[in-house]
């Protein structure tokens, strides 16, 4: 399965989510390829830190910020992997557009902030464009960096605002803003691996993985 984690809005936690999804699948015994489609190369850096630390399982990772290169490499190598996770940069790029045409699933993380919700119109337009080229793209949206309070007004209003964008199916599996995600990512780990264990973060990640896969 090819999953792109993408949004034209930056700062919504795409790389952290991509890394955690890829590692969750690798820990489940899948052959996983993480593709960094951002020129900043943050996902690649995290995987390099993991590799240098000798953490198992290892994770294959490559950086392809150029759309034609990303498309060609995925088409050539997809059969080697069970799952491919593409971390697309936070802008309308050739890499993001190529990823959308290749993917089975687009996961759009968005934070419970007004300007994050407003920005969904841009990625919604790209979904329409991708679907005009290739049938079958499923597009899901999930609250990332959500407020920790179950009764958060911001969380509820952001989820409700998604109704204005029929391109997306809302996943009621929010990822809450937790320090453990940042701590794990800085070590090239998922929250499933970091110690001390954050059981709430693990439950949130596992719930999202279950829905997607």
* Assembly annotation: single chain
What is the topology, as strand order, of the major beta sheet?
Answer: 3-2-4-1-5-6-7
Continuous helix count: 9
Total E-strand runs = 7
Low-pLDDT stretches are none
Estimated helix fraction = 40-55%
CATH superfamily: P-loop containing nucleotide triphosphate hydrolases
* Gyration radius, rounded: 16 Å
Characterize the biggest β-sheet: 7 strands, parallel
Shape: globular
Secondary-structure arrangement, i.e. CATH architecture:
3-Layer(aba) Sandwich
Overall number of domains: 1
Terminus-to-terminus distance:
8 Å
- Average per-residue pLDDT, rounded, comes to 92
Describe this protein's structure.
This protein has 213 residues and is an alpha/beta fold. It has one domain: P-loop containing nucleotide triphosphate hydrolases (Rossmann fold, 3-Layer(aba) Sandwich), CATH 3.40.50. Helices cover 45% and strands 20% of the residues. The chain is built from 9 helices and 7 strands, in the order βαβαβαβαβααβαβαα. It has helices at 14-27, 42-53, 67-77, 94-102, 114-118, 120-133, 153-161, 179-186, 199-212; strands at residues 2-5, 32-37, 60-63, 83-88, 105-110, 138-146, 169-176. It has a 7-stranded parallel sheet, with helices on both faces. α1 (14-27) packs parallel to α2 and α3 runs parallel beside α4. The longest helix is centred in the first third of the chain and has 14 residues, at 14-27. The mean pLDDT is 92.
């Amino acid at each position: 399965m090819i999953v792109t984690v993408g949004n034209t809005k930056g700062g919504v936690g795409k790389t952290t989510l991509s890394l955690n999804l890829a590692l969750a699948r690798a820990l489940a015994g899948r052959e996983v390829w993480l593709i960094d489609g951002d020129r900043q190369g943050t996902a690649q850096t995290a995987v390099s830190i993991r590799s240098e630390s000798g953490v198992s399982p290892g994770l294959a990772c490559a950086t392809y910020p150029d759309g034609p290169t990303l498309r060609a490499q995925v088409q050539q190598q997809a059969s080697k992997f069970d799952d491919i996770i593409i971390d697309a940069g936070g802008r309308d790029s050739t890499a993001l557009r190529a990823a959308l045409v290749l993917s089975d699933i687009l996961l759009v993380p968005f934070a419970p902030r007004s300007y994050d919700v407003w920005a969904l119109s841009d990625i919604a337009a790209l979904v329409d464009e991708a679907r005009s080229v290739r049938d079958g793209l499923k597009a899901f949206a999930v609250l990332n960096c959500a407020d920790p309070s179950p009764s958060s007004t911001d969380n509820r209003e952001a989820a409700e605002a998604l109704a204005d964008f029929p391109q997306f199916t809302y996943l009621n599996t929010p990822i809450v803003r937790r320090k453990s995600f940042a701590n794990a990512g800085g070590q090239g780990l998922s929250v499933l691996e970091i110690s001390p264990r954050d059981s709430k973060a693990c439950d949130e990640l596992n719930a999202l993985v279950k829905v997607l896969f």
